[in-house]
């Protein structure tokens, strides 16, 4: 009767961490007591379809997420210098190791995948004002001239397009559930490869997402600063402007709404809770889908570079790790558990890294080929 234990193991480890965290700080959601948590674990193994148990499990996870969000706020991240030093050793800066990276990419087709918020644009209080710099846009234009390039985001595809405004890119919105190819040729050489890919694996969920959006708007309006964003195939509840004291209450409100919708699930991002269909689709699957549509399904001559700052980007880092292809780069100033191999500190370092990629690819005008 048990489901594949290997698949569950990772989830169980996360749950153990979540349960441990909720025991150490049980003020956030007091319902997560020790015996109950153990019952949740047993239930998760033996009765994977028991809705209540799974929901309580999500409660423990949400509380652990709030703890980790508190822990990574800048005022508390100072005493971690030693931990950070060893982390940097295993996840070196992609700028310092640039030569090594391009050396392993040599002779292969580089494909660039980029998250948007916190990667190309800084995290700002109002998600509607997460603009990227002019410099970043110019660099992105250069990147798209040399490499197939995709923006992979939790946001609505149209919204992120309005921020980026480059028709030569691929856009995978709603965590990859809404994929569209370039509407403009990337370069004269690539002109004929422009199939306008369009893929929406969760379209039947649209009415339900819309319904939950309206309910969440209503239920969260009593929490000052709470912001619900409709990303078409998924929803985001932003905590960026909510007082830390109200985080647990807001998370609980969201969880209660979700109780009535077993076909939707909650995932956690940077100061955001995301609601999305339970279909097995994520940024990692979007990456695989895009590589396939570019014709690199079984190719060894491809070198995907994925840059992102969020927990949802980990699905893409995992895919690259298991394919043994390309590299994942995590954008973070603090040590974090990640499947990425390299790091960059912030969007301005992302811009520098991308600019160096463009310079690497651009035919050199300084060194003449014949003297
Ligand atoms: Mg992000």
Automatic annotation (TrEMBL):
InterPro entries linked: HAD-like_sf, HAD-SF_hydro_IIB, HAD_sf, OTSB-like, Trehalose_PPase
Cofactors: a divalent metal cation
EC number: 3.1.3.12
Protein purpose: Removes the phosphate from trehalose 6-phosphate to produce free trehalose. Trehalose accumulation in plant may improve abiotic stress tolerance.
Signal peptide coordinates: none
Protein name listed in UniProt: Trehalose 6-phosphate phosphatase
Organism this protein belongs to: Glycine soja
Enzyme category, top tier: hydrolase
PANTHER family: TREHALOSE 6-PHOSPHATE PHOSPHATASE (PTHR43768)
Protein family per UniProt: Belongs to the trehalose phosphatase family.
Keywords, sorted A to Z: Hydrolase, Stress response
UniProt pathway: Glycan biosynthesis; trehalose biosynthesis
Catalytic activity: alpha,alpha-trehalose 6-phosphate + H2O = alpha,alpha-trehalose + phosphate
Molecular function GO terms recorded: trehalose-phosphatase activity
């Amino acid at each position: 009767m048990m489901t594949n234990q290997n698949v569950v193991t990772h989830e169980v480890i996360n749950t153990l961490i979540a349960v441990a965290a909720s025991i150490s700080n049980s003020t956030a959601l007091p319902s997560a007591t020790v015996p109950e948590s153990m019952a949740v674990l047993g239930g998760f193994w033996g009765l994977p379809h028991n809705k209540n148990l799974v929901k309580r499990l999500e409660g423990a996870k949400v509380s652990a997420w709030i703890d980790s969000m508190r822990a990574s706020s800048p005022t508390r991240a100072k005493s971690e210098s030693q931990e950070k030093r060893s982390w940097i050793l295993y996840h070196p800066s992609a700028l310092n190791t640039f030569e090594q990276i391009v050396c392993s990419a040599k002779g292969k087709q580089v494909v660039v995948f980029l998250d948007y918020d916190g990667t190309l644009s800084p995290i700002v209080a109002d998600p509607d004002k997460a603009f990227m710099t002019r410099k970043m846009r110019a660099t992105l234009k250069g990147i798209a001239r040399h490499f197939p390039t995709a923006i992979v985001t939790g946001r609505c595809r149209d919204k992120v397009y309005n921020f980026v405004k480059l028709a030569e890119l691929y856009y995978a919105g709603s965590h990859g559930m809404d994929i569209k190819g370039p509407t403009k040729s990337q370069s004269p050489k690539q002109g004929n490869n422009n199939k306008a890919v369009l893929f929406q694996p969760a379209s039947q969920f649209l009415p339900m997402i819309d319904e939950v959006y309206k309910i969440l708007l209503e239920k969260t309006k009593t929490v000052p600063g709470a912001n619900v964003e409709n990303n078409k195939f998924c929803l985001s509840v932003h905590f960026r402007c909510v007082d830390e004291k109200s985080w647990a209450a807001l998370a609980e409100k969201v969880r209660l709404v979700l109780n009535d919708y077993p076909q939707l699930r909650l995932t956690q991002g940077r100061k955001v809770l995301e609601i999305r269909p339970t279909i097995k689709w994520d940024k990692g699957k979007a990456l695989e889908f895009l590589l396939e549509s570019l014709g690199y399904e079984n190719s060894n001559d491809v070198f995907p570079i994925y840059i992102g700052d969020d927990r949802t980007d980990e699905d893409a880092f995992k895919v690259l790790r298991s394919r043994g292809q390309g590299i994942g780069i995590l954008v973070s100033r603090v040590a974090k558990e990640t499947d990425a191999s390299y790091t960059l500190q912030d969007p301005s370092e992302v811009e520098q890294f991308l600019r160096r990629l463009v310079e690497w690819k651009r035919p050199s005008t300084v060194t003449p080929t014949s003297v």
